[in-house]
Amino acid sequence: xxxxxxTDSTFRGVVTRHLLVAGAAIAAVATSGSLWFxxxxxxxxxxxxxxxxxxxxxxxxxxxVAALEDRPGVWRSVLPLSLPGLAVAAYHSYLQATxxxxxxxxxxxxxxxxxxxxxxSIPNLSLIAFVLVTATALVVWRRA
Length: 144
Known about the structure:
Blueprint: H1 3-40, H2 47-69, H3 75-98, H4 122-143
Helix pairs in contact: 1-2, 1-4, 2-3, 3-4
């Protein structure tokens, strides 16, 4: 291995590790935010919110361990969690935009809180988080 190849390999490894840390940070912010909404503001999560939580919370640990152990193959564990989460968050956002009731026997379409500046609802924020986590996993996959 030449010096140039070693430098390129080291650089790729550093960038991959930074991506893994970014994925863990995104998932941690989303998890902390959801806990703040329920525990801090006292908002009761609807059924679709629970599904999104179930799919987001493990990603903190999955990405975190991958960052510590420098495992770029983590996309195999992330995508089965992030893609369904993205779908549920997109569906939830769609329900809030188009209807006032929810088909899953709950008030899933009710907007309980909006981001003051941009007007994004909690499912919209969840959708953004799932898009970012999925994109991070896909970039790690392409770099691996």
